[in-house]
Automatic annotation (TrEMBL):
Keyword Oxidoreductase: no
Similarity remark: Belongs to the outer membrane porin (Opr) (TC 1.B.25) family.
InterPro entries xrefs: OM_porin_bac, Porin_dom_sf
Lineage start: Bacteria, Pseudomonadati, Pseudomonadota, Gammaproteobacteria, Alteromonadales
The keyword Transmembrane appears for this protein: no
Protein known as: Outer membrane porin, OprD family
Keywords, in A-Z order: Signal, Transport
GO cellular component, one term: membrane
GO MF term list: porin activity
Signal peptide: 1-26
Amino acid sequence: MKTKSQKLSLITVSILAGLSAFNANAELDPSAAINASVAAVDLSDLAKKAFYEDSSVNLHSFLYIRDRENKVDGEYKPQIENQTLQLALDYNSGYFKDVIGFDLWTSTNLKLGDTVGQSEILLYDYDCNDDGAANDACEKTNTSLNVASVKAKFGDEDAGLAMRAGYTRINIGTIRSSWGLNPHAYRGAEVKASFGKLHFGYAWADQFKNDWSSSFKDLTTKWHQGEDNMSGAEKIEFIHTVGAIYELDKGVIDVGYGEGKDFRKNWQVLVKYDVALSPATTLKTSAFYHGGKYIDGDVSGIENASAESYVGLNAALKKGGFTASLGYSQTDAPDAKDYNFRLTAWANSDHRNFLQTKSQLDDYTADGTKAIKSGLDYNFSSWGIPELSAGVSANYGWNVVTDATAAKADRTYDGSMYSIDYNIRYSFLDGGLKGLNIKFYPAYLRTKDTNYKESRNDMKLMFIYTYGLK
C-alpha cells in the first residue's frame, strides 16, 4: 500500500512531466512565442499612436495685469492690483484602441511684485502670518495640477458614448468649468450620449478647484470654500446635472436641470438661431431662461424659499468687420442679493450661463434688475489689419434692489446702474510671434441708490501666448 508521501511524489512527478512535455512542444512549435511577440508589438504601436502620434502638447504663457478701484466714502480706492505670470503645460492624448485616453493640465501662477485684494488668479491665503486668525489675507505664487482625467469613447457619430472622470472639466446641463488663467475643474465624472444631432449628458462632482486654490476642495455654502478660521460653512455633499442638446441647421436648443444636495436646484433653456440676411450679413439671435430655488433647510439656511429666475434676449447683426448687438435681461432673486446660477455658493463651482447683458464689472443680475446692453465691435480686415479688433459696449440697469440685506418682504427697487466697457485686441496671425494675443479692457461702473455694489473703475491688460510642441 502506498503511503501519503508516495502519492504526493507521484503527483509531483506527473506535473513535472506535463510541464516538460508542454515546453518541448513549445520549442517544436515556435508560433506561440511569435504570436506573443507580435501581440506585444501591436500593443506598443497602438500605445505610441494614442499617446504620442495622436496627442497634443501645448505650452501656455499668460501675463495678466489688473488695476481695479472701488468707490468708498466718495473716494476711489484700490480694490485689486495684480500682476501675474502664468506658465502652463497641457497634454491631451489620443485614444488607445480608439477607446481610452487621458488629459493633463499643470500650471504655475507667479506673483510679480506687490498685489492688493483678491484677484481670483493667485493663491489666496486667508491667514498669511499663520497665527490662526483669518484677518491678514494675502496672495501667493501657486503651482498646481489643474486637470488629470481619464476619457473614453464608444460608437460613432450616429450613436456614440463619451465619458471622462477624475479631476476633470464638466460642460453639460447646468454645470460648467470656467477659466481663470487656467481651467477650473471638478473631482467628478461626465457622461454624454450622442445620436446624430441629439446629445444627452449627466455629470456628478463632489470637489472643485479654481485658480486661487492650491487643491481640490469640498463644495460648500460659503465663498471661502470652508476655509479654517473663517465663518462656518455647510458642506454640500455633491452636485449633479442632466442635460440635452439638439443641433439645428443654424442654431441649437440646450436644456438642463441640476441639483446641489440639500442646497439648491436649477434649470435652464437656451435657444440660439442664426439668420442669413444676405451673403455678407448674418443675424444671430438667442434667448436664455434660467430658473432656480434654494432647498429649505440647514444647508441653505433658507426657509420658505421662493422660485427665482433670469431671462435674457439678444440679437447681434454681423456685416463685414462690424458686429452690432442689443440685449435685454430681467432678474428675480428675492432670497439673495443677486441671482445664483450655481448649485453651490460662489467660488465652489461654475455654471453654464449665456448672460445677455453681462459687463466686465457686473453681471446685471441683482434682485429686481432689468437691463439693456448695446455693443459695437469692429475687425480691421478691410484696412489690411485682420489682426486688430476693437469694441465698445454700454449697459443700463434699473429697478435694482435698494437694500440687498433687507428681507424679501421689505425690499424696494429704486436703484440703478450703468457701465461702459472698451476693448482692443491684437492677434499675431503669422511670423515669429504667431500665437501671441494682446488684449486691453478698460471699464467703468456707476451705481445709484443701491448698496448692492459700489461704483468701480477697472483696467485689464493681457499678453497670451500658446506654443504647440506637437
